[in-house]
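Hi P.,

Sorry for the delay on this. The queue was packed all week, but I finally got your sequence through. Input first:
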Amino acid sequence: MKRSIERITAEHTGQSVETISRDGDRDRWFTPERAKEYGMVDRVVESLADVRPAGTRRRMGI
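Then the structure:
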């Protein structure tokens, strides 16, 4: 199971299976920018406007 996850993660991140295996064997924390560089995320959300659908207005909550 571990090897399958490493292979899939490598395919999706662009990292080698060896890198994924090595990095997965220890605690590794990423800043948002580093996670993007590594290939773990596609983009870093800076504000709610980055993910709010176009044409929607902000709802006022209580």
